Structure prediction request, 694 residues.
Amino acid sequence: MAEKKMIEIRWHGRGGQGAKTAALLFAETVLATGKYVQAFPEYGPERMGAPVQSFDRISDSPITVHCAVTEPDFVVILDPSLMDSVPVTDGIGGKGKVIVNTSFSVEDTAKHLGIPSSQVYVVNASQIAVETIGMNIPNTPMFGALVKVVGDLNLESVLDDTKKKLELKFRHKPQVIEGNLQSIRRAFNEVQGA
Amino acid sequence: MVLTTNPKGKIVAKTGNEAMAEAMRQIAPDVVAAYPITPATEIVQIFSQFVADGVVPTEYVAVESEHSAMSACIGSSAAGARTMTGTSSQGLALMWEMLYIAAGLRLPIVMAVVNRALSSPINIHGDQSDTMGARDAGWIQIYSENSQEAYDNMIQGMKIAEQAKLPTMVTTDGFIISHCMEVVETMPDDMVKKFVGEYKPERALLDVKKPYTLGALDLQDYYFEHRYQLADAMNKSKQIILDVAKDFEKEFGRKYDLYEKYRMDDAEVALVIIGSAAGTSKVVVDELREKGVKAGLIKIRVFRPFPHQELAKDLANVKAVAVLDRSDSCAASTAPLYAEVTSALFTHSGGKAPKVVNYVYGLGGRDITLEHVGEVFDRLVEIKDGAKVGEILKYINLR
Amino acid sequence: MKTREKEKKLSWKELPDGDLLEAGTAAKFITGDWRTEKPVWDGGKCINCMFCWIACPDSSIIVKDGKMTGIDFEHCKGCGICAKECPVKPVKAIIMEAEKK
Prediction:
């Protein structure tokens, strides 16, 4: 394969945690920065709690490829228990970065995953979600952590853009918008690693 | 930087289903009758929300099955209303007998079809078995590689259907496109409205001043003539499709043809393929070109009417061709697209034709990767260099 | 009585698109010569109830100013429904007789 000019992201979550929504939200946010994007979930027999995946692609040129993401540059793990049940590090090679929602340290998590700690980032997204949104919905804080780890994305413009999206999506539930934005900002600031 | 092809275009992120629903909103047909089915559900779900919100003046008919959906569409189209619907897989299968009636009565219904495998075993993912099975129903079939094409094809499809007086299917690959969010350039409502124009049917059953009978019994003495009319209309629709594409390019900036030629000018090895996997394959073509391999690709956009003569001409100088089918014909000599391509070459290439092999891939949504496509090209290069063709029909990524 | 016009079979080019038949073509189709039996109407007995007019499948009961005036033998196929439905007693106002050819 030719040298990769594209960033590929894989999200691991459990049905109901918002892995699909986060992937779509991330794509829309990145589009607003002027890049080409693709976001798609892996559909199976969806049940609350079942392991699910979703994917993002980001590129400076049009994206025509439509196969699954097999060698992700970033892996986002919404639920730490997935580290034991799903091959979350598949295809990351020596460069892929893994961002985990966990209360454990970078070193402990890296050991758990069996990869160098230079490839691991951690953030306690569940706690942030409970404190800001009032529920353990870790997708928006993990989205904030991803924005930080990917780099070259401006937090303030991401928050501005996300606010618009959330206002549309939650026009009947405006009280959750501020909490979600807060969770993105906190995770962006609190994510640790590398 | 994401580029627009038209200064009035608006760049948005949309899934295939959202893009098709958006096109339907802008076309604002008189009637939509539909029954939801995965993975096409969102198209009519989003559209029904437009209706509920009063965004479109369309009469939305919620029916109890796809058979009823197509029946209601036939009634509404015969009455003189601009009519659209959407379905997939088993839903399309349930419409079967009504598909032929819509075509025989020459009703310009436009249907969004999200390609999905047929049961059994039950599967909700993308392959083209459903529409391939309906390929001889007398419907124009336009396949889309991505969300942008789905949007553009829906808009063109309405105009094509009404000019050709033929029902038209516009398809996307289930989940791969229908649920994939991509960058899409949408056009302002007024431009789409102007492009599609007002529907003025020549005859309509609700025109009580000029009454007529539609769909009367037609036995040995007339059935044949009417079916020939249908075949003739299908042949002539090729020019209509090209004319509409030309108008579309003039107004909107994006170019369409019966099929897309990707780096075919001096190609020695080439794929013929339909749908989303064409996009994946283009990446492989680019990589091969960088290595100096003269690779190319033809992506069929219009499968019915099939561009026989045109395709034979464009493939005549290629040395080795692989036709990739996302459906199987269960022990026909080969899969449907291969049968069309080789028959076109046999009939129209004037004796000069490439070696052609067939692959069936992606049934039930089985992934086709860059490596898979690369392997196909490797074989084509060997054939070009004199290797034996061997087995014609192979299956990609089958255990 | 008119005889049946020789039907010209249209070619695919001459036919309107899509199994479309203009209205009123049945009037041109002389079905009267199908009869083996013929309804005979007795105006003296008729009570103008219009049962026959409602029941006739070929619109062959001729009515003027609300009164039955006769039968259109160019289209009457001699099915006998009018005679069957005629309520006049003891002898019906329409009876069927063998067609003389």
